[in-house]
Specification:
five-stranded parallel β-sheet, single chain, about 130 residues
């Protein structure tokens, strides 16, 4: 069974790179290009891990994270933030909103994959 990874970013190039690499690594990527689409895909596909950008149209990453933590409590869904925002205030806000990991763009693919593997390894402990 392949783990589903919801990749949320409004940058089509980033989505394409992540989608291709995740597929090669044996994951099942699901993509969304804005915050509203992310919430729809979350409900439709029930992903195991979410990679979430902060600056997006319709709903930003903070709004999406808030919605996930408030309205999707049926299971723990690790949320990894991937953002160009590198200010301490953004990092603190994300962790205060229960983000599980924060990577600053541009980020190395190996760090993304290591983060995903770590989040997946924690799933059994959070059930």
């Amino acid at each position: 069974m392949a783990y589903k990874i919801l990749v949320v970013d409004d940058d089509k190039d980033i989505i394409e790179v992540l989608k291709n690499r995740l597929t090669r690594e044996g994951y099942e990527p699901v993509v969304a290009y804005d915050g509203q689409e992310a919430l729809e895909k979350l409900t439709e596909t029930n992903p195991d891990v979410i990679l979430l950008d902060l600056m997006m149209p319709k709903l930003n990453g903070f709004e999406v994270l808030k919605e996930i933590r408030e309205k999707h409590k049926d299971k723990w869904r690790p949320v990894m933030i991937m953002s160009a925002q590198d200010e301490l205030a953004s990092l603190e806000k994300c962790y205060n909103m229960e983000a599980d990991h924060y990577l600053t763009k541009p980020c190395e693919m190996e760090k993304v994959l290591r983060g995903i593997r770590t989040m997946i390894s924690l799933i059994p402990a959070r059930i």
